[in-house]
Amino acid sequence: MASSFLYAVLTNRVLLVDHGSDMAGIFCEPFPDTSWLLPMDFPLTDQLHSLQPGNVHSYGHLLKMNNLDISTVSQAPSFLHLYLAYNYDKHDKLFFQDQNQGFLQKVPWLILKSDLYFVPYLFLLPSFQQELGKLFPDKEAVFHHLARYLFHPSNQAWGLITRFYQAYLASADQKIGLQVRVFNRKASPVSVVQKQILGCIKKEKLLPQVDERKRIAFPSKNKTSRAVTIASLYPEYYESIKSMYWMNPTVNGDVIGVYQPSHEEVQHWGNNIHNLKAWAEINILSLSDVLMTSSWSTFGYVAQGLGGLKPWILHVPAGNQTTDRPCPRAKSMEPCFLTPPDYHRIPNTRGRPHAVSPVPHVMKCEDAYNGIKLFNPKQL
């Protein structure tokens, strides 16, 4: 939605959003005296959810039928389907070719489906670079500004956020967020992921260590209270860390509270209440002073962007071995565009990051080798 909004701004379009039933009541309207919701009587509503990749109304199909030469299309259609989700094919990806943007300007209605943050690639298109440079002098704050402008929690979501914050976080001297996303529990056993988390906490000194030889900590006027929020589908990581700090005092006398808003076990696709809880937890994580997120997780990306935070990125092990670099620090708070087209050769941030980059502020993501994201070049 953030990417689509920015594309609409760049191309002088109106953005209308089909929230559907699973997103009802999650956001407040961002635009005063108007609405970004697609009207209920929109003529194509019945077709929206049936538009799949490669359908006859898709831009990729149009290019395929015309041998990838858009100049042979004599008249622009009344609407086109832009399919920009993670499994899009080579024809759909041609949306990102700059020479095709002129044709898209002639199409009255663009129906865009995406689950990707494709903003970084817009910065590679010459047609948009001048305007984007004016809009965003700070290249790693693009999503931060878009999200803060667009995504306001509804009253119901805000109630979940504020009640949790006031009950568990408000009185803490430091708030620490830990987001654990495991894509395959069989490939990433709980014990191994837990060891990786603890390795990160110890290596980066995110929390004080416990003293297993003592039963109580000596009184101290300088002790710090720290509140840890764990966001995960599963309860095991919360239970383990909570038990560790409950059963043992910290070596410096700090008081550690560990909390988890929910543990749904599985992701319930299309479930409104499940999505409401997720949105609330994303916002709770964004209120952290220190944040650890999981690699490849858009849940974590949104939290860090909302909060303006550069997280430690937890590399969730795929196997039985942890790594000696469990959680490198992100160099940018921007989300990653996980599956971009490969029209441009983007270098890694290691070594000589500017060697062949079309623009100095679009580089490889820290956690997804094929992904790209926005950086402030001076920080690389």
Automatic annotation (TrEMBL):
It is found in: Golgi apparatus, Golgi stack membrane. Belongs to the glycosyltransferase 37 family. It is an enzyme of class 2 (transferase). Pfam families: XG_FTase. The keyword NADP does not apply. Its EC number is 2.4.1.-. It comes from the Eukaryota. It is a single-pass type II membrane protein. May be involved in cell wall biosynthesis. This is Fucosyltransferase. Keywords: Cell wall biogenesis/degradation, Glycoprotein, Glycosyltransferase, Golgi apparatus, Transferase. The keyword rRNA-binding does not apply.
